Amino acid sequence: MERKKLLMLNPIEYEHKFDKNALNVVKKIPGLKSVFRKKLQDYERYETVLNTGSSVKVTSTHFSEIHDILKEACANIHLNYIPEMYIGSSLMNGHSGWDVNACTLGYDNPMILLSPGSVEYLTPDELLCVIGHEAGHIKSGHQLYHEMINTMSYFGSAITQISFGLNDLLENTLNQSIDYMMNYWSRMSEFTADRAGLLACQDIDVAINVEMKLCGVPPKLYDEMNTDEFIKQAKEFENFKNLEKYYKELVELDHTHPWGVIRAFELLKWIESGKYHQILDIHTECELEELKRTCMKCGTKLNKDEKFCGDCGSKPEIGNCSKCGANLLGEEAFCGVCGERLWIR
Ligand SMILES: [Zn+2]
Ligand SMILES: [Zn+2]
Ligand SMILES: [Zn+2]
Questions:
Q1: Among 93, 117, 116, 120, which residue's Cα sits nearest to residue 104?
Q2: Domains, the chain
Q3: How remote is the CA of residue 237 from the centroid of ligand 2, in Å?
Q4: Calpha distance 334→338 (Å, rounded)
Q5: Residue 337 Cα to ligand 3 middle (Å)
Q6: Which ligand is nearest the CA of 291, by number?
Q7: Model confidence over 210-235: pLDDT tens digits?
Q8: Ligand 1 center from residue 108 Cα (angstroms)
Q9: Pairing state between β 84-87 and 56-58
Q10: How remote is the CA of residue 314 from the centroid of ligand 2, in Å?
Q11: Looking at the whole model, is its pTM more than 0.70?
Q12: Strands (E), 191-323
């Protein structure tokens, strides 16, 4: 299948609004970054030691076919930064290695970790989708906040991280709600990453099948998997009003709930909104110069000399990436468009 390289794809164009809204709340937690700065470094080092000591690295000469899939995923969603990738299961929180699963570790030097199960049970196209999902987390700068959550579970909950100088009960309540807010955001960030996965594999059936396999369908039933039936099941969510409220409740029920069905539902809704196909069209029809600017508030593509966004009226100011020229929010570790590293601690 011929797939397009979505040049100058800006994550703002496809980020899910629940993800953006929840992250804005998390970003407003006072003192969050400064409290975590040192601990994050220690935690990233710990993860790196554990991962490189227990997993097998995928390179252009070792498991080269899988490495080619990684390169294609990054190229398709325009992430010039090719993260290191490993196969292993020691750092898969609460999952068996033979589950279909993947995650990204670290944020300064993000590394993708594939479970043995995902290599064994996914087709190459499905693997492209899963790796595209992980590359999407990196592209959106999710790793900083994902790592804060992982750091919390390693060093103890936020309770020991942030002290507001209040009495114990108040502090406890406040810190529990910080944990809650961050975990809620983390779930919502999956919707964005799923869109990146689809943009990488560019095949709706493949992306839906991945969600089905993530739900835990056993390999002996793979031949009988019916994408249309699963889509029908996912679409039943249309009957529920105020889904955001349910999703908030799901933070606590996460492990028991068929999360993959909801993710498929959110993905289908996005496809039906026309945005997915619009992105495929815009990023292949336009000249490179025309693709450089994006409204950092609503994701609309802007003309070269537009002073304000025609859709939401906001000003596309802030900085530019020195490598690709895309406009930026100014706080990213990587340029969300080309993957250029913007700052090193
Ligand atoms: Zn994810
Ligand atoms: Zn706008
Ligand atoms: Zn760039």
A1: 93
A2: 11-205 (3.30.2010.10), 286-345 (no CATH)
A3: 29
A4: 8
A5: 5
A6: 3
A7: 999 998 899 999 999 999 999 999 88
A8: 17
A9: antiparallel
A10: 6
A11: yes
A12: 319-320
